[in-house]
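WARN no homologs supplied; continuing
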Amino acid sequence: MAAVAAAKPTSRRVGFVGAGRMAEAIAQGLIRAGKVEAQHVLASAPTDRNLCHFRALGCQTTHSNQEVLQSCSLVFFATKPHVLPAVLAEVAPVVTAEHVLVSVAAGVPLSSLEELLPPHTRVLRISPNLPCVVQEGAMVLARGRHAGSSEAELLRTLLEACGQCEEVPEAQVDVHTGLSGSGVAFVCVFSEALAEGAIKMGMPSGLAHRIAAQTLLGTAKMLLQEGQHPAQLRTDVCTPGGTTIHGLHALEQGGLRAATMSAVEAATCRAKELSRK
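OK structure emitted
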């Protein structure tokens, strides 16, 4: 399947059951990157409230979940987690051996998905984060018992249009939620704090927030593009007796490192709790 996708990247029909912000972000990334033509995307939702965003992208829409499965072999399920079991039960009669089904729903394990679908259905699970909206997401995917390496590679290749995508064991999906899903909020708190420090010292608010955000962006690009460990880049910035080491000392006194580790741990533990419910 991956070879077919590579040869004709825009001929595949892709479906979305659920048309919320994350579904829209994934569809937008695929279309902008030329992975799929907009006219080959079909999205379903109970009302037009979110479908209008798909129509604005040039996609097809419907109120029938079964129609999506009947028209598309690759389908993303992007409903609320508590709604997903009923949706899977609804579409199960039209699922075939040709389908590759991808769950975006947080906290629903692959085993539960497979139980609700016909035997041997190829199911994968992805965990995206909000920056997928600007095609800079951090995503992981895990495959079910009947999904092979070709399905995983197909999905990974498509999702790279929305950012970075890595295949992991399912046990690490909840860790990704704590690190990257919730981590967006943690980074925002740090960016806000950086800017407020500058505001305290006399810089205008708008300028401080723009510079703080750009500092985070530039640092992230250096870490990714140069493959450096964060400690190495930190050392490069930190000169003996300079401004940075004085600031780092203040951060250590405030317990930033321990607090951040605890935040990721707490978010991961909560994700695991939700997965068990």
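The chain has two domains: 14-168, 176-275.
OK
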